[in-house]
Structures are given as structure tokens and as C-alpha cells.
């Protein structure tokens, strides 16, 4: 029986259970992996492709056979994870296959067959999109991102040798049907506790919307029954019907891909300067920028790091933002109800429900320098990837309507110091929990090097091309 609109809008009490999928069986078998849950592999290769015009039929044949051999379904991903937990048997090489709007067109699809999301159809190079996101001119992007991109092949594994062998095999097949515009290597950066971090040194990937039973039960046990923040999410924020799917429950998801270079040296020096200006320590200064300490402790809960990787918090007891500033990266990108406390808001519960519809499933990896003790200025950063059902209402909304503007919950808050160009100085609490603030303009140490919008179609579409 087909999934109903209600099935997509409602969160099953304990999430979807791939071991007992019930009505979600076909859905999980036809949906690509990495959407409902990150693939979890340590190394990844992204191949950006352009189909060769005279080779459209062979390209379709190649996609079909690649999908049959490599592309991992949500079901397969869950089965392999179970096998690993129970028998310590590693999963196979993981793969995703995604297309741009131009990629669909180049394969001969008619407009009505192409996924409808508007930013997806416009492409990230579009001037209107760039302006709303605050992105640099396309001429400043890395060369390959300036080209017309048709497809993204993501291949991932825990063993770098297996991965590079597989990638070489795939590239050898591909050269008949596509130009490989660029190969981007990515990896999971870890601290000395083996936690996943990004280049500035902060634990990353902590707060995510959760869809699957195991993730929900794990988080619930750890985070006191979601009393302050409930991370469960309905399917309609992450998937849409695949217009070309061959099954009753064929779904896909939109991927936002952005290469974000991080100037680690610049960030660390600016953080020190901020600490000196406020007369606080470096760790607290960093926490005021990000909203969490490097070890993940939310700064709204503590003025010192306590190794608490909790996600069960909101800003209810910190509405004057004297502990976690409004501009802090995680407060701007997930206000946890803040927008319901302003005068014009429809009320706390309604505002919170609306905010929750803007959530994205982040699936980032790092690139460049892989020694976390180094402080590169160029050549390293985050391959920011996120899945969603509606790009305008999710990624674009977060970046353009929350992170970039100076007005956020209140006037004169300033932009998100991690990902937005500053126009005014932000206001920083001089002492944690005290109302007195000091102005300081934290510079932007992240540069956007290019990117694109993709769609991850269903397996039944890919294998029936
Ligand atoms: C959370 C770093 C870019 C959206 C975080 C966290 C860190 C971080 C350290 C806290 C850990 C966690 O909750 O997972 C970075 C860095 C970036 C970057 C270094 C660029 C190089 C972005 C972009 C967006 C974004 C471009 C979207 C526009 C989010 C969201 C959260 C988050 C939604 C979770 C907030 C929450 O639920 O509390 N990021 N991020 N990030 N980031 Fe970013």
C-alpha cells in the first residue's frame, strides 16, 4: 500500500525501523542511502560529471549498471550497519548518484519529468540565488565549479585503498560516456578522542533531524526523553516523490553541495583577539562564535566545557542571549523556538513548528589537510552537503534569512560569524550570563569556492533508464 500524505507528515512514535519496515519497505528499498542517515564511511570521493552529447544512450546504460552494482539503498545501508554491529562484517563500498537540472536535460528528459524545486531548476550559479545567499561571483569560484555540471557520483568507504581502487575502475568506465570535470576527495577529520570534528576544531554533526528508530532510541536514552529539544522529524522535510520513479513509493531528495574553504590560522587568531577584547579565555570566545565549545558543550548551558555532547537544550532560559549570543552559529541556524518570542510571532508553539520545517540533514566531510594540529590558511575546509525536501525553505532559508541578516529575533544582532559576511559588529557578552556587551567584528574565515544543487533520484529510476 502506498505511503499517504499523513505518513509523510507524521513522525512514527519511534521512527522508521528498517529491521521491521512494515509499510516503509518499498520506500526504503527505492530510496538512496545517506539521506535518512549519514553513510558513516571515513573516506569519500566526489566525481563531478558532464555527459558527452553524442553518448547519451551509452551514458544511460552506464548509469543503470552503476546503480545496479554500486548505488546503495537506504535499506541496504541499514542491513549492512546491522551486520557490522552483530557480526563485525564491514559494509560494501557506498555510492550515491545525483543529477543537476542540466544533467536531466542533457539525458533527454522533458521539463515535466524534471524535479520541480525552483532553486534546483535555477542552479547555484544563478545571479538571483547567489545574491540571496551572499555568494561570490562565479568568476571567483574554483574553475571546475564554473563549468556546467550534470551529475555527482559519491563513492565512500572506510578503507582508502579499496576506495581508490574502486574509483579508478569507475573512472575507467566513465571516460566513454562523460567528462570527469573534477575529483574531490573528502574525509572525516577526528580529534584525539576520535570524535568527528571540522577544521576549526569543533565537534560536528551533533544536532541532526532523526528519522530512524535506532537513532531516535539512542538519542532518547542519552538525552533524557527530549524534554527540551525533540530531534524527531517527519519524512516530508527530507523526501519528495521522484517524478520518474517506477514504484508506488519512489522518493528522492535534494542535495545542496558547497565547497567551503576554512582559514584555520585566521579563525584562531581572530578568536584570540575576541578573547582579549572581552577578557575571557580562548575556549569561551570560540563557544560564543559557534554556540558550542570545541568538545560540543552548548555555551547556553555552561561557561566551561564539560564534555556534554547533549542536544537536549533550547534557549528558553537564555532569552536575553547573555550566555549564547543570538548570532552564534548554532543559534542562528536552529533558533530552537527563539523566533516565537518576538512580538510579531504567531506564538511559541506555532513558531517552533515552522522553524522545525527549515531543518536540513547535514552530511558534510572535510577536505585538504588531514592533521588536525595544523593551521592551514588555504586549501582545506568543509564539503558542506545537506539533504532536504525543499531547498528554498530549508538550506536557502537558513543561509539567507537567518545566518546572513543583521536582524534576527532582534535588531542589530549581526550576522552568523562562521558562515556570513559581517556588515556590522556583533555584540558579545562581556561576562557569561551578564547583560553588558562589547562590540567586536568577527571576520569571515570561510570562503565559498563553488557548489551546485542536485537531486538524488530513486533506485527504480536509475536502474530502469
Ligand atoms: C551545527 C560548523 C557551515 C548549518 C554546527 C556545529 C559546528 C558547525 C561546529 C555544531 C555541532 C552540531 O550541532 O552538529 C560549521 C562550519 C561550517 C558550517 C565550520 C563551514 C565551514 C554551515 C552551513 C549551514 C550550517 C553553510 C547552513 C546554512 C548548521 C546547522 C547546525 C550546525 C543547522 C545544527 C544547529 C543545531 O541544531 O543546533 N556547524 N558549519 N552550517 N550547522 Fe554548521
Number of E-state strands:
14
Give the H and E element order: HHEHHEHHHHEHEEEHEEHHHHEEEHEEEH
Taking the sheet with the most strands, its summary is:
6 strands, antiparallel
Task: Quote the beta fraction.
Answer: 15-25%
Class inferred from helices and paired strands? alpha+beta
Question: Could you characterize what this model shows?
Answer:
The chain is of the alpha+beta class. It is 29% helix and 18% strand. It is built from 16 helices and 14 strands. It has helices spanning 5-9, 25-30, 56-69, 74-87, 101-106, 118-122, 127-133, 143-146, 160-174, 213-222, 264-278, 282-290, 329-333, 348-356, 395-403, 459-462, and strands spanning 43-51, 94-99, 151-157, 178-187, 189-190, 196-197, 240-241, 251-262, 361-362, 365-367, 381-388, 426-429, 437-440, 446-456. The strands form four sheets. Strands 7, 8, 9, 10, 11 and 14 form a six-stranded antiparallel β-sheet that branches. The chain has a four-stranded antiparallel β-sheet with strand order 2-3-1-4. The protein is globular and about 65 Å long. It starts with a helix and ends with a helix. The model has no long low-confidence stretch (mean pLDDT 96). Bound molecules: protoporphyrin IX containing FE.
Amino acid at each position: 500500500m502506498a505511503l499517504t500524505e499523513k505518513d509523510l507528515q507524521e513522525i512514527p512514535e519511534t521512527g522508521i525501523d528498517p529491521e521491521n519496515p512494515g509499510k516503509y519497505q518499498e520506500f526504503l528499498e527505492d530510496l538512496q542511502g545517506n539521506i535518512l542517515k549519514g553513510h558513516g564511511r571515513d573516506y569519500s570521493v566526489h566525481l563531478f560529471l558532464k555527459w558527452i552529447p553524442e553518448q547519451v544512450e551509452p551514458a544511460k546504460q552506464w548509469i543503470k549498471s552503476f546503480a545496479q552494482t554500486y548505488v546503495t539503498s537506504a535499506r541496504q545501508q541499514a542491513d549492512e550497519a546491522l551486520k557490522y554491529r552483530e557480526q563485525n562484517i564491514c559494509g560494501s563500498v557506498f555510492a550515491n548518484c545525483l543529477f543537476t537540472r542540466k544533467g536531466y536535460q542533457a539525458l533527454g528528459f522533458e521539463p515535466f519529468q524534471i524535479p520541480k524545486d525552483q532553486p534546483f531548476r535555477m542552479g547555484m550559479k544563478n545571479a538571483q540565488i547567489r545574491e540571496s545567499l551572499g555568494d561570490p561571483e562565479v568568476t571567483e569560484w574554483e574553475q571546475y565549479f564554473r563549468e556546467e555540471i550534470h551529475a555527482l557520483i559519491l563513492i565512500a568507504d572506510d578503507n582508502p585503498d579499496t576506495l581508490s581502487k574502486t574509483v579508478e575502475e569507475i573512472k575507467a568506465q566513465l571516460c566513454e560516456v562523460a567528462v570527469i570535470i573534477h575529483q574531490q576527495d573528502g574525509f572525516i577529520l577526528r580529534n584525539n578522542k576520535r570524535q568527528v570534528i571540522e577544521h576549526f576544531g569543533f565537534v560536528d554533526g551533533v544536532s541532526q533531524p532523526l528519522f530512524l528508530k535506532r537513532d531516535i532510541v539512542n538519542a532518547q536514552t542519552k538525552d533524557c526523553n527530549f524534554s527540551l529539544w525533540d530531534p524527531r522529524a517527519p519524512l516530508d522535510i527530507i523526501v519528495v516523490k521522484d517524478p520518474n520513479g517506477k514504484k508506488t513509493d519512489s522518493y528522492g531528495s535534494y542535495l545542496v553541495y558547497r565547497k567551503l574553504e576554512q582559514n584555520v590560522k585566521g579563525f584562531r587568531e581572530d578568536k584570540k583577539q575576541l578573547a582579549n577584547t572581552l577578557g575571557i579565555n580562548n575556549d569561551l570566545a570560540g563557544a560564543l562564535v559557534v554556540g558550542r565549545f570545541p568538545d560540543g558543550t552548548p555555551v547556553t548551558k555552561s561557561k566551561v566545557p564539560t564534555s556534554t555532547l547533549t542536544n537536549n537544550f533550547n534557549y528558553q532560559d537564555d532569552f536575553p542571549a547573555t550566555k549564547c549570543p543570538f548570532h552564534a552559529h548554532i543559534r542562528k541556524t536552529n533558533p530552537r523556538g527563539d523566533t516565537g518570542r518576538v512580538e510579531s510571532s504567531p506564538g511559541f508553539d506555532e513558531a517552533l513548528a515552522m522553524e522545525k520545517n527549515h531543518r536540513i540533514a547535514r552530511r558534510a566531510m572535510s577536505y585538504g589537510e588531514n592533521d588536525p594540529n595544523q593551521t592551514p590558511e588555504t586549501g582545506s575546509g568543509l564539503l558542506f552537503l545537506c539533504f532536504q525536501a525543499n531547498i528554498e525553505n530549508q538550506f536557502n532559508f537558513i543561509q539567507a534569512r537567518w545566518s546572513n541578516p543583521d536582524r534576527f529575533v532582534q535588531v542589530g544582532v549581526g550576522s552568523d560569524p562562521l558562515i556570513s559576511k559581517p556588515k556590522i559588529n556583533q555584540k558579545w557578552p562581556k561576562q557569561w550570563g551578564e547583560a553588558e556587551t562589547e562590540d567586536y567584528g568577527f571576520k569571515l574565515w570561510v570562503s565559498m569556492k563553488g557548489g551546485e544543487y542536485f537531486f538524488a533520484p530513486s533506485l527504480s529510476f536509475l536502474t530502469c533508464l
